[in-house]
Amino acid sequence: MGDSQENQQQKNQAKRTTLMLVLISGAFAAILNQTLLATALPHIMSDLDLSESTAQWLTSIFMLVNGIMIPVTALLIGRFTTRGLFLTAMGLFGLGTVICAFAPNFGILMVGRVVQASGAGIIMPLMQTILMLLYPVEKRGSAMGMFGLVIAFAPAIGPTLSGWLVEHLPWRSLFYVVFPIVVVDIIIAYFLLRNVTERTYPRVDVLSIILSSFGFGGLLYGFSLAGSDPEGWGSSHVIISMVIGAVTVTWFIFRQLKLREPILEFRIFKYKMFTLSTALGMVVFMAMIGAATVLPILMQNMLGFSAFDSGLALLPGAAVMGLMNPITGRMFDKFGAKWLAVIGLIIVSATTFMFTTMTTETTFAYIATVNAFRMLGVAMVMMPVTTAGLNELPNKMMPHGTAMNNTMRQVSGAVGTAMMVTVMSNSAIPEQGLEGAVHGVNISFLVVGFIAIVGLIMAFFIKNPEHNKNVA
């Protein structure tokens, strides 16, 4: 009897592992695609004869549509089967990739990016929801750790791979690399993916979808524009989109609180641990994405490194974060999130302040080493606090939890990038040449350092749930 039970458990574990590989491959392709394009923009600009502000739309539109799709995923998860939704999302993503690969002009390339993003926006929260429902509470840390490995690895490989590809091949090769991963994943998912989410058939509130799109879209666009527009926060486009975003998000929130079946469940914030972990995740993501944007600018424009070199400098950090995520996941299952988050944020704060003393003589080795230690700190915080927050939710709230988590992370990534680029531009001292420009970078890291300290104080309020104490 014991043997058959053990065999059954092994079969379940094998099924879960296979499913996990399918989901993680999909997420890997989506995130890799998001980060590939940044390094290639100069090549696309010269090939299609675009200005910098026009080309920037290729990354902005992806982020925008992604940000619009994420809040709607909770509704989609309630209406469609897990299999159907995952295959549709990957299908859309694959179709968008093909359109981009063969786009004859900028307009078609933009259409491809929109189609890609509409699929990618569903993949991430859907994947997190499936993982949280597949694994029992005491094993979720390890599962989310594996998921974190992908989130860390893809953005790091992205700029380095992209830098190498565009130096040796046409920029379209970026999409040729992503497409086979998508095809293989769709084939495997078709045969192996089973339905794990419950269909509740929530009512579709059209006004909520419109408000969500304009609200989150407006905010994300405003923040990403503030980081790239020469006028920064003073630009009329930034102000208009921020105002539209803020007003419609407020309207959207009030409407959700009145609806019996909201698209995004804001009452979820009554779970204190979920609220705290979401806020902490936003702080760390802000610090991580902001640095990933500012360090390549510093290295290429101020320290004279190539695009490939700047991508290479971020690689050790991503490798550390990727390797640490499964380990911190296991540690979370054993000891809970509190002390992992506290130690992680001490490391993030200390290494961020180490980036405030850079000069034009700063070496490649210094940037790569400090960033690697910084990402070790990020790995200790990111997945454990996300899992701790989601663990507090009942299963029926899980789709809303993952959708909310991803939405807030997307917003904080845009905020962090815009804030760091703005502070960097405004604090630069033009009359001091390159030294003055590096001074701007130092000040931007100083601001992020203080934000990390706020996160560290918040980490002391994390409570470890009972099951961790029992396991430990």
Automatic annotation (TrEMBL):
InterPro entries cross-referenced by the UniProt entry: EmrB-like, MFS, MFS_dom, MFS_trans_sf
Gene Ontology MF terms in the entry: transmembrane transporter activity
Keyword terms, alphabetized: Cell membrane, Membrane, Transmembrane, Transmembrane helix, Transport
Database matches in Gene3D superfamilies: MFS general substrate transporter like domains, Multidrug resistance protein D
Transmembrane domains' residue ranges: 21-45, 57-78, 85-108, 114-135, 147-167, 173-192, 204-223, 235-254, 274-299, 305-327, 339-358, 364-390, 411-429, 441-462
Domain of life according to the entry: Bacteria
One protein family per Pfam: MFS_1
Protein name as annotated: Drug resistance transporter, EmrB/QacA subfamily
Organism for this UniProt entry: Lentibacillus halodurans
